[in-house]
Design goal:
147 residues; two-stranded antiparallel ribbon; binds zinc ion
Amino acid sequence: MAQSLSLSSAVSVFPCPNCKETINTSMQQCSFCHTPIDQASAEQSAAITSTISQACSDASYLKIMLGILIPFGVLTFFPFLGLAGMVGFVFIKYAVPVMTIRWWIKYGRIKTADPDFRRARGIVIPVTAIALIILAFLRVNLFGLRL
Ligand SMILES: [Zn+2]
């Protein structure tokens, strides 16, 4: 059991350099087109693949975070819930720009034609723009401060 676990964590997937089918680093040759696999470049390619999938999941997380601003914004109009809404709004308002900047530092220089990564960047660009607009123009009164 323990061995199968460690085995699965050591093997990572990457696209075949020849046919682009998803294969893994334990293979000597591609199971689809039988191209021999160079272990070093396979490991490198697998690392890029995992970075891209991380970039994609971080991008969708950012979109969700920004989306939470809407219910928090709506909450601010309700008595009693208004304070919770404002605290949440202020937190997300400052957290999202910081997180989008982190995303650009981590993944912004990746050069790839990977459609998933392009889609992730296509999400993060508008999220960054909206987050910066909100940061610049939307303020709430919280504990006497304009935040
Ligand atoms: Zn192949």
